């Protein structure tokens, strides 16, 4: 289910379905950004490899101090590889994305 949520959001960004991508964000993330358009603007400028992703590969799922983190390898349109950590939280509606961190390349290769 976690991989499905992330894959759906990645597809939503590529399709520019901002409302769909917003639906996968946790209540906390939605509270910070307030609107789907503010959220989309942050992703487009702060996470261009997510906004325009070409390929995603799911790596390990870990529990770090009670927080579930899904590591994902992403390829951007230029062919550059990125490794991101997605923090996931379970809400009433199911799994939601509660934050994303870009990892140093070597950390993602371990």
Write the layout of secondary structure elements.
Blueprint: H1 2-15, H2 18-23, H3 27-33, H4 36-46, H5 48-51, E1 55-64, E2 67-75, E3 81-91, E4 94-102, H6 105-109
Antiparallel strand pairs: 1-2, 2-3, 3-4
Task: Describe, in plain words, how this protein is organized in 3D.
By secondary structure, the protein is α+β, with helices and mostly antiparallel strands. The protein contains six helices and four strands; from the N terminus they run H-H-H-H-H-E-E-E-E-H. A hairpin with a 5-residue loop joins strand 2 (67-75) and strand 3 (81-91). The longest helix has 14 residues, at 2-15.
Question: Helical proportion?
Answer: 40-55%
Q: Quick check: average pLDDT?
A: 94
The radius of gyration computed from the alpha-carbon positions, rounded to a whole number of angstroms, is 13 Å
User: DSSP helix count?
Assistant: 6
Which stretches of 5+ consecutive residues score pLDDT under 50? none
Strand content: 35-45%
| Biggest sheet features | 4 strands, antiparallel
| Physical arrangement of strands within the biggest beta sheet | 1-2-3-4
Structural class estimated from helices and strands: alpha+beta
Distance between the termini: 24 Å
Please provide the ordered H/E string of secondary-structure elements: HHHHHEEEEH
Instruction: Name the overall outline.
Output: globular
Structure summary, number of beta strands: 4
């Amino acid at each position: 289910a976690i991989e499905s949520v992330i894959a759906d959001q990645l597809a939503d960004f590529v399709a520019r379905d901002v409302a769909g991508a917003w639906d996968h964000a946790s209540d906390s993330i939605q509270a910070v950004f307030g609107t789907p358009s503010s959220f989309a603007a942050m992703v487009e400028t702060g996470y261009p490899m997510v906004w325009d992703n070409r390929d995603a590969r799911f790596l390990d799922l870990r529990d770090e101090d009670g927080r579930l983190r899904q590591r994902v390898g992403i390829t951007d349109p230029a062919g550059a590889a990125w490794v991101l950590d997605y923090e996931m939280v379970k809400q009433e509606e199911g799994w939601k994305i509660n934050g994303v961190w870009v990892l140093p390349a070597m950390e993602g290769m371990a």
